[in-house]
Specification:
The protein is of the alpha+beta class. Helix content is 48%, strand content 22%.
């Protein structure tokens, strides 16, 4: 059982980190508009609150640094201190130090602020006035106010994780009860099960809603990050951010944070050209990057778009051959979207030619793996000389996912909607066998098609493709997409869309790559969840 003191510390750290993020964002904005009174007032307020909270909990070093910064910004507000380059550098360093102190509150090694930084803060504070005078001004300014309690409380995320897991178990049992009530045809049981369905559905969405955060909590870190990278690269960058109010599961946002940061660094360091090069290419000397978020049903779409030099398709095709991924003939048949998908392959990033020519590929396999782990997908579009766009398709929740249910022989399977492109009934005559694989043409696109019955009834290590003639005049095909690639899956029956709770597989089934987990249907039937990423990788490689 945790002590009350430890809980208070965790609440302080959570709130202090939010203050730090806001301070980093505001000071970046202030550098562009140093006369903005509202930004100055907000920075002053955040520092004052952080100082007071740190004192109350006993973190005196954080309180001291906060106080020095608060004093400096108070002087800037009162026109007693100029927001010059030298002052800006010291203030940025001070806020960075605050972030480090807050992040290491319970670290094994105590972090001490740099003596040089403290000395610099004292120098800019004492240029026009002394500490006592400034402290009096702060106290007089806040003499900021009726006290009121916040409408927010802080809950450990693992408590919400546990609660959501329990809700997931409840949903499985609920669906079973609803199914039984229909079978028994008992009016009382039907009424109770209908009420149970409504209550559990509301509970499910309430718990999921409690876990949602605005993507702005991540996006708002980027103005400062972009500024620092641009300064280091000696480039001018204009960053446009939109969709900060779009909400997503906090765990998902946490997992993709490093990926988005990596993509942003690549865009600035390798995608955006130097100012003189841009001028020669009739572009603005200032590079432009757009970071946006939007909702599409149960999916959150994040886009990172730059107007840099783009990716040279021909150089990537050469690299695919040189690295031994495909031979020259196979590469010549690849669509542009398939060419770009190789940027995410492990080892491909080591190709010197690709990183020099396109500036992409370094570590992109790590980005893809992180997005795969949460059941999302990533897409890249690029045009040489125009720019590159990375699009991330992310689920709003990890625990409960939309899926398309299908049947193969007597078994049920679920395919995550995140990877479902389309569903169609295709005349058998339009399927052609090439080598050991089936292919078909859909809207001018040649797509490999896999007969799921044959796949499940054969050893995956030795199975190369279809072995028996297709039955019937029409085939039910689910087109799935992964890493800029499409694959058709032939199933016996298409059932319905349904929200499912995915559970991990037990041994020895968990060693089979094509399964991502398992769920239970309302009928009590076990339903295996297909790993679209694994199936797609397997058959695209064989094509």
């Amino acid at each position: 059982m945790k002590s009350r003191e430890q809980e208070y510390k965790e609440i302080f750290v959570a709130e202090a980190l939010e203050y730090y993020d806001a301070l980093s964002r505001h000071i970046s904005e202030l550098e562009k508009t140093p006369e903005d009174e509202q930004i100055l007032a907000e920075i002053f307020r955040l520092l004052h609150n952080l100082k007071a909270n740190a004192k109350a909990i006993g973190y005196l070093v954080i309180a001291d640094v906060s106080h020095k910064l608060e004093t400096a910004f108070g002087m800037i507000r009162n026109k007693e201190l100029s927001f010059s380059d030298e002052v800006v550098t010291v203030l940025f360093d001070g806020i960075d130090m605050l972030g480090e102190l807050i992040s290491n509150v319970d670290g094994a090694k105590e972090i001490e602020p740099s003596p040089a930084l403290l000395r610099n803060l004292d120098i800019i504070i004492n240029t026009q006035t002394d500490n006592n005078t400034e402290l009096n001004k702060v106290q007089k300014y806040y003499t900021s106010k009726n006290l009121s309690l916040s409408d927010l409380i802080y809950i450990q995320i693992k408590k919400l994780d546990h609660l959501l897991n329990l809700v997931g178990e409840l949903i499985i049992d609920r669906d079973r009860i609803v199914s039984i009530s229909k079978e028994l045809d008992n009016d009382d049981l039907k009424n109770v099960s209908a009420h149970l369905y409504r209550i559990t559905e509301e509970l499910q969405y309430s718990v999921m809603d409690a876990r949602l955060v605005n993507v702005g909590s991540l996006f708002n870190k980027f103005p400062r990050i972009v500024r620092d990278i641009a300064v280091a690269e000696k480039k001018e960058i204009n960053l446009e951010i939109s969709g900060q109010d779009i909400q997503i599961d906090r765990n998902i946002l946490q997992i993709i944070t490093d990926s988005l940061l990596h993509l942003m660094r690549n865009a600035i360091s390798h995608g955006i050209e130097k100012a003189d090069v841009r001028k020669k290419n009739k572009k603005t000397p200032q590079g432009n990057i757009e970071l946006s978020a939007q909702n599409d049903r149960d999916t959150v779409i994040l886009r990172l778009k730059d107007d840099g030099k783009g990716i040279d398709q021909q150089e990537v095709r050469k690299a695919i051959v040189q690295k031994g991924f495909l031979n020259a003939d196979a590469v010549s048949d690849l669509r542009d979207t398939e060419v770009l998908s190789f940027l995410f392959e492990p080892g491909f990033s080591l190709a010197k030619e690709v990183t020099e020519v396109s500036g992409r590929g370094v570590g992109l396999d790590v980005v893809k793996n992180a997005i795969d782990s949460i059941g999302g997908r990533i897409k890249v579009d690029s045009k040489k000389g125009v720019g590159t766009t990375f699009t991330l398709y992310l689920p709003t929740s990890i625990a409960v996912k939309g899926a398309l249910l299908c049947q193969v022989e007597e078994n049920f399977y679920a395919i995550p909607l995140m990877h479902t492109d389309s569903v169609l009934s295709l005349p058998t005559e339009k399927l052609h066998e090439v080598g050991n694989l089936l292919v078909t043409d859909i809207k001018g696109e040649t797509i490999t098609v896999v007969h799921m019955r044959e796949l499940f009834n054969n050893d995956l290590d030795t199975y190369n493709g279809t072995k028996t003639a297709l039955e019937g005049d029409v085939q039910n095909i689910i087109i799935v997409t992964y890493n800029n690639r499409k694959l058709g899956l032939i199933v016996d029956k298409l059932l319905r869309q349904q929200d499912i709770v995915i559970k991990s597989l037990s041994r020895p089934v968990n060693t089979i790559d094509i399964y991502a987990g398992v769920t239970l249907l309302g009928s009590g039937k076990v339903c295996l969840v297909l790993d679209v990423a694994a199936i797609t990788r397997y058959f695209i490689a064989r094509r």
